Amino acid sequence: MVAGAVAVGALFVSDACLTRIDASHVGIKVKLAGSSRGVQDIPVVSGWVFFNPLTEQIISFPTSVQSVIWTKTPNEGPPIDESITFSSEEGVNVNADIGLAFHIDPALAPHLYLRFRLNDMRLLADGYVRNSVREAFNDQASRMKVQDIYGAGKTRLVSEVVKALAAVLGKDGFLIDQVTINGALRLPQNVADAINRAMEATQNAIQAENRVRQVKAEAEQAIAEAHGGAEAARERAQGEADAVLIRARADARANEVIRLSTTGSVLQYRAIERWNGRLPMMQGGDKTPLLTFDVAHLSGTDAEREKRLAELLGDDPTAPAKPADKPADKPTDKPAEPEAH
């Protein structure tokens, strides 16, 4: 009976002195009594941990990434307005839904506990961390114009806030993973309208400038096409003129060759060749009338004519002339003598 009671008591004491720290957490062993209490006496522990529940306490901190969002809508988080408001350089109030992702540095978990006496990450985020985020936004936004915050400068604002939070929260063990502005920024209506009008005017100016560039490019293209067409027309006209001139020169050369090669004998031969054998009605004597031509005054002397003709035909007038083929003897047709009676 006594042995059983001792065994049960030993089992109870064993369970009370043993706990387990999960892999995604870090534990710290806090001494509750004695003269050796202090920051240096709070070791970081993990896995299965034995401790004396009368003089020690094990505090567990999550080391995984924690995500929170402070928004105006009641659909996310607590049903109250948790959005953050900050001011620009002009003093314009800007309201925004802010998201934050962070995790705890395991080595600084003892320091974090001694300072805040909390291991609930949600309570720490909604208190100290949220205040730090709001101050960082106010500090960085006060150096920027509201139009920049509302426009392209929003990304730069978030980047500067992350740097500021890393410097402020990092020494307490908070490691910042991400800061986001969720949704559109909320501005006073008159300021938002003025910024929208300014942005619209800027967009219109950019569109007008682009249109001017387009019109200029189209005009330059039309000028280039017209210039190319004019050049083509000139080239075509020049080619046609050159062709006419070449034909005219060829015709003139041919006519000159014909003129120089025309002699009285040639003309006489062509006249005989084209004669139909009929005699004119009027004739005198016993001679057959034939035309005679005098072309000496048209072609110059024979030597000059032959030289010029050789130049036109590409012959060398100084080269020895080839012996002409001896003409075949032509049969002479003599009239038959009348028979004596």
Structural commentary:
- It is a single chain.
- This protein is of the alpha+beta class and 341 residues long.
- Among the domains are: 2-62, no CATH class; 66-187, Tetrahydropterin Synthase, Chain A (2-Layer Sandwich), CATH 3.30.479.
- The protein contains nine helices and nine strands.
- The strands form three sheets. Strands 6, 7, 8 and 9 form a four-stranded antiparallel sheet that branches.
- Helix 3 (121-141) packs across helix 5 (154-169).
- 12% of the residues are buried.
- Residues 5-15 and 330-341 have low confidence and may be disordered.
Q: How would you concisely characterize the structure shown here?
A:
With 341 residues, the chain is an alpha+beta fold. It contains nine helices and nine strands. Among the domains are: 2-62, no CATH class; 66-187, Band 7 domain (Tetrahydropterin Synthase, Chain A, 2-Layer Sandwich), CATH 3.30.479.30.
Rounded radius of gyration (Å): 60 Å
Distance between the termini: 202 Å
- Helix and strand composition category: alpha+beta
Which parts are unreliable, with pLDDT below 50 for 5 consecutive residues or more? 5-15, 330-341
Cα shape? rod-shaped
* Percent of sequence in beta strands: 15-25%
SSE order and pairing:
Blueprint (H helix, E strand, L loop, with lengths): L1 H15 L1 E4 L3 E7 L12 E2 L1 E4 L5 E7 L3 E5 L13 E4 L5 E12 L4 H8 L4 H21 L4 H5 L3 H16 L4 E13 L2 H73 L2 H11 L21 H4 L2 H12 L28
Antiparallel strand pairs: 1-4, 2-3, 2-5, 6-8, 7-8, 8-9
Helix pairs in contact: 3-5, 6-9
